[in-house]
Design goal:
By secondary structure, the protein is of the alpha/beta class. The protein is built from 7 helices and 10 strands. The radius of gyration is 17 Å and the shape is globular. Bound molecules: uracil.
């Protein structure tokens, strides 16, 4: 399991020409300053709900992950409250249920970070680590967070497959790997070679909206995981 990491400002190198922050760590510092709008939202949430996590949500899972699942961003009353990706979010019910069904988790998911659930051969992270207002990060915020994703991917020596949940996660993975968008178009069920032995799978995000409108059914989600399981088992 990944533990909370607090990095210092000395761990965040700035590229002088474009002033683009380049985080060197796979996890954002809990007081990450990179996105002013998200910092303001975090501080407002902390004032209103001091018992919530209210910080960049760290990745969760197995350091020996062969599968990395990349979500969008924490939900305000879900991962932002509990401090574990997708935990307490509507989307977590389908995601964690599916991970248990396909052997990527053991235990019981109870929508709280101390439910004892453990991921096996998998890790979950988010393209944007802080909760954004209305669940919508701006392109600049996604860009600010890219260095963490890049480092997260680089810190998993056994990684074979990345599953992007939705287009924003897909684009973030491509940017993190330096792959052109034109080389890998997002589509539910698509699979892309992104170099260095890594394959990117796409799924529609398992959000409440997508499942309620049946853009994504549990069967569609399961079939992506069935394919991933098959590949990993060789
Ligand atoms: N919760 C997360 O942590 N990420 C998402 O993308 C959605 C809900």
């Amino acid at each position: 399991m990944t533990t909370k990491t607090r990095t210092t400002s000395s761990n965040v190198r700035r590229v002088p020409d474009r002033r683009v922050p380049v985080p060197l760590e796979a996890e954002a510092p809990l007081d990450c300053p990179l996105c002013p709008r998200l910092v303001a939202y975090r501080e407002a949430n902390a004032a209103a709900h001091p018992d919530w996590f209210n910080a960049p949500v760290p990745s969760f899972g197995d350091d020996k992950a062969r599968l990395l699942i990349v979500g969008l961003a924490p939900g305000v009353q879900g991962a932002n409250r509990t401090g574990r990706p997708f935990t307490g979010d509507f989307a977590g019910d389908l995601l964690y249920g599916t991970l248990l069904e396909f052997g990527f988790a053991r235990g019981t998911y109870q929508a709280r970070p101390d439910d004892g659930l453990a991921l096996t051969g998998a890790m979950i992270t988010n393209a944007v680590r802080c909760v954004p207002p209305q669940n919508k990060p701006t392109p600049a915020e996604a860009k600010n967070c890219l260095g963490f994703l890049k480092a997260r991917i680089g810190a998993l020596p056994d990684l074979e497959i990345i599953l992007a949940l939705g287009r924003i996660a897909h684009d973030a993975v491509l940017s993190a790997r330096g792959v052109k968008k034109s080389a890998a178009t997002f589509a539910h069920g698509a699979e892309h070679d992104i170099g260095s032995g890594l394959r990117l799978f796409d799924s529609y995000h398992c959000s409440r909206y997508n499942t309620n409108t049946r853009r994504l059914t549990p069967e569609m989600f399961h079939s992506v995981f069935a394919e991933i399981r098959k590949r990993i088992d060789g």
